[in-house]
Amino acid sequence: MSDYVIVTSTKLNEKVEERMYVVKSPEEGFTSTVYRLWATGEKSPGRLKVRKIGNSKP
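and the corresponding structure tokens:
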């Protein structure tokens, strides 16, 4: 059993986009958070991007 709860959802269109919901953490003062993860068309180590898009639950 983990102290962290992370839920993901994937959207497949022309590009793959994933949303990651961090729902639970043992950190004091934690609030649930949503991140958007996507890959750019580049073929480089920096092609994966992450952006915080809000505080929410799935």
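(Above: one complete record from the training split.) Residues 37 and 53 are 10 Å apart (CA to CA).
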